[in-house]
């Protein structure tokens, strides 16, 4: 294996709608990983508003437009041994492809790391992709790459409406859509042809309403393959994965069918010869009897960042080291610290991702969700159950909601509004599902209108039922508290009455005592008065006696001397 000493890494450019900041995370991890291995790292990115372009992230940073002419000048000056385009999203792949077509890669003897030109072309060219899948007997939807509106109409009439229109080499499904008739197809295809850098759109057989699953796969040069993470889109096919609520691990697939997808994913990454990480998307019918390979992203993607955070497996870091020749068993998982990167992660918890839409700022924008991205970010939450993770994620959205329902901010949707949003989903669909359940709509009816698996509707119903339970408990608690308050008031009143009675008795006793004292005083006064009167009488008698005696003596004397 030839020695690689200097690597150029492509960033993803400015953050735009349809291309989230996950690519900046991936590119930053890649630069760190290459520097760890002693590789001189050159970063080219036109976005100064990211940590990726910090001066210490790479050995040299070029804040220049991601344009072939500009990049060629940088290549001429720096003379890198290889280019790593798979960390810059679709922008990085498109730039690498254009450099190849202009002969710049061959001119300077530059090797592409991660995914070669043939792999990129197969993944992006729908006809080549279909041929590659047919070679390994993997089913794909009927499709055709067309370069004009007339070709699009002709093929659509051949396979029947509705059809899915996807411009080639665009970000986040930009310019695409679902055409239900000829008029819609003409409008969408015309727009898509303008957005495609090769003036090509892909007309796909519709699998609208099918379930969508994603697998993150890693492969090294020795053909060791692992499945890093399985993810399930709660929303059905027809809604871009960047617009969908996503859950990991996969919740609704029987193990037997999951193994089919797993084997298919490993077969695909081996056939395409991808070294590093790739994202593979599958559509599965409701009966879980058929599947289709929808898309292969031969690069780290928006889902890769989610998978990394969900599992603790640093996909971008490990993919960068694989790109320079390392094998999975040689790379230590720096999160687990003890196991090599060849060990597949397992989850004993649930992860939920919810997109964040800017409709609060762009009030005139059509809020209906479809095949093109309108979200500008996303949140991720971890819980012991789907219900817990969903509630946490909603709180993290920064939209003023504290949960799915029962936070005092529920809108009062009419039945007509509910049915319309369930059929034509908007950013409010998850809240509308909860409101419908609260109003008594059946799980089956909601699942039929939304094409969302009944499993998730029942999980949302658990949250709604819990709200009702809490309300009942609240009512019971309020009744209990009222009873307790009434009993307490009764006890307090009894205590007051008892105290007042005691005080009354004290007052009566005091009054009685005072009366008795008064009576005693009166008796005493009476006795004193009687005593005084008696003494007066006795004194009077004494005085009379004295007078009598005195008078007697005087009479005697008088008698004696006469």
Keywords:
D-amino Acid Aminotransferase, Chain A, domain 1; five-stranded parallel sheet; 15% strand; 562 residues; seven-stranded antiparallel sheet; 48% helix; Rossmann fold; Dna Ligase, domain 1; 16 strands; alpha+beta
User: Distance N terminus to C terminus?
Assistant: 187 Å
What's the rounded overall pLDDT mean?
87
* Main beta-sheet annotation: 7 strands, antiparallel
CATH-defined topology of the domain at 212-399: D-amino Acid Aminotransferase, Chain A, domain 1
Can you describe this structure?
There is one protein chain. It contains 16 helices and 16 strands. It is elongated, with a radius of gyration of 46 Å. It is 48% helix and 15% strand. The longest helix has 108 residues, at 454-561. Helix 1 packs across helix 10 (302-311), helix 1 (22-36) crosses helix 11 (315-323) and helix 7 (149-159) crosses helix 8 (182-195). The model has no long low-confidence stretch (mean pLDDT 87). The chain is an alpha+beta fold. The strands form 3 sheets. A 7-stranded antiparallel sheet has the order 14-13-10-11-12-15-16, sandwiched between helices. Strands 3-2-1-4-5 form a 5-stranded parallel sheet, with helices on both faces. Strands 6-9-7-8 form a 4-stranded antiparallel sheet, sandwiched between helices. Among the domains are: 6-113, Rossmann fold (3-Layer(aba) Sandwich), CATH 3.40.50.20; 142-206, ATP-grasp fold, A domain (Dna Ligase, domain 1); 212-399, ATP-grasp fold, B domain (D-amino Acid Aminotransferase, Chain A, domain 1).
